[in-house]
Amino acid sequence: MKFRKIFYSQKVAPYVFVVPFILSFFFFWVYPLITAFTMSFQDIGAITSEWIGFANYTKLLKDNVFHIAVMNSVKYMFFTLVLLIPFPMLFAVLMDSHLVKAKGVWKAILYMPALTSVVISGTLFRLMFTEYTTGQMNIISSFLGLGTYKWLKMGWSGMLALLIVACWRWTGVNMLYFLSGLKSIDTALYEAADIDGASGWQKFRYVTLPLLKPTTVYVLTISVYAGLSMFLESYMLWAGNSSPNNIGLTIVGYLYKRGIEKNDMGYACAVGVVLLVVALIINFVQLIFNGTFKKEEQ
Amino acid sequence: MAKQKTMSGTPQRRVGTILGTGFFLILSLIIVFPVFAGLLASFRPGTQLIRRGLAIDLDISTMNLDNYTYLFSGNADSQKYFMWYKNSLVITIVSVTLTLLICYFVAYGLTMYDFKFKNLLFTIVLATMMVPFEILMLPLYKEIIAFKLIDTYTGVIIIGLCGASTIFFFKQYLSGLPKDLLDAARIDGCNEYSISVRIILPLAKPAFASMGILCAMGSWNAILWPLLVLKGAEKFTLPIGLNTLLTPYGNNYDVLIAGSMFGILPILVIFLIFNRYIIDGMTAGAVKG
Predict the structure, then answer these.
(1) Hey, is the C-beta of B223 within 8 angstroms of any chain A C-beta?
(2) Which domains, ranges and CATH numbers included, belong to chain A?
(3) pTM to 2 decimal places
(4) What are the tens digits of pLDDT across the range B223-262?
(5) Rounded CA Rg of chain A
(6) Mutation test of the interface with chain A: which of B1, B25, B31, choosing the one with the most A Cβ atoms within 10 A?
(7) Which residue of A has its CA nearest to B163?
(8) Is A210 exposed, middle or buried (0-12, 13-18, 19+ CB in 10 A)?
């Protein structure tokens, strides 16, 4: 049994272990990625497909609906970064202090929204943003003397609704990321800062903030991706992929609409390639700004 | 420590504690609110949702269990609901079991051996995380059609079996174990595969717990991919099934609201039991950057 012997040898075993990944990598990553690129240069019909060069891309440049989708996604990403990095970080610092009791309870509750399916949370929020006077958001806005709104029918309030859902779902998760980052900071550094007479703010600015950097970069990276590829929140909030004047349309929503609903796969793949390029550029710039590459050179 | 204890007694400190804890109490109330409102609504007729939204109404006398008895009564709607529930359970259990085993063995191979393409492979694992799934979605959809896996559970499960983040987590965990164990087992005559199953796998139980729960949550709540693959209503998973109850033309809120609340239940129970492992698994990538 020569085969048996080879199969059991220490030289061959590692390859046997990683084979599933290699297969999955080629079938479910390399091949689809290449196909996405090639399909974006084609007009995909039911039976035959035609090579049309950059026609899909030039069409995208002039496509108003696509511009709206990109603007929506970029705006959403930008505001989620503004809302979902500094605040969870501050909450984590506060949670980590001696000022908070029953930490476990708050952590569990704040994490809970991430457990619920988008179908359920989207439905609940759609009902809260209803245009009727009994909707929670209208109760709050009329309490503040701002009157009532048709929340899901106007651009700014539609975006606000999406952001509120995002904050509801991810504040706790991001806070946990920062908390685990804080745990890895050596307490001796704070003691040293205390001896030097540092104020609370100085300790935050010169000890906490720099040492949280790996965590911040991580959260930033996943937030950029999550923000740009958001789709389901909008899909649930408007009970489908169409919103009035496309106020809730995102890049992936447009990809879905073109590729699945209108069966125009080539054009949809061009949308996907644009999404990939935008995401990679943003992340690359962000990694350079954060000095991730520099650190590796040292 | 002693110093802190005495300080916590000062009035100033106590006010700080009240403010700090109060802040999280309020934040938690805001977070719980939508689910609480949904729970209240599930005890009232679905038509109320359309008229009044999630209006908070604590009047017990107007509440009843009608939605839940309807859900459990065995009528056509409830049969559909429990079929979706069962589908979700099957898909979740199968995909979690397979994903964990496959990712564990891949990570084991990447951690415990030195071989030619090891670093390249690990770089590739990390690189696959850099492309949003949505871009691959349409080609994958065509691929699944070509493989004749459309409208099958296999089609839903197969593309997620080698999750890069799961491999990454297992690798982090396994690299903390002493490699001498392998040599000791080899001397005792254990072959490479038995070592991975009988010696190292039991040691990796906490990693299995963390990743298992995260995968289970992901699978239980997955929408986008199952929505593409599954076509027949009898194959739907719970989220997709619930989603079909919502149409622009009319909503079946009675089943939806009770079904939603009942659908959160398994995840909530798992979370309450294993919440430490979930947090460990989730934050593993964040600290190392």
Answers:
(1) yes
(2) 62-290 (1.10.3720.10)
(3) 0.88
(4) 999 999 999 889 999 999 988 887 655 567 777 888 888 8
(5) 24
(6) B31
(7) A21
(8) exposed
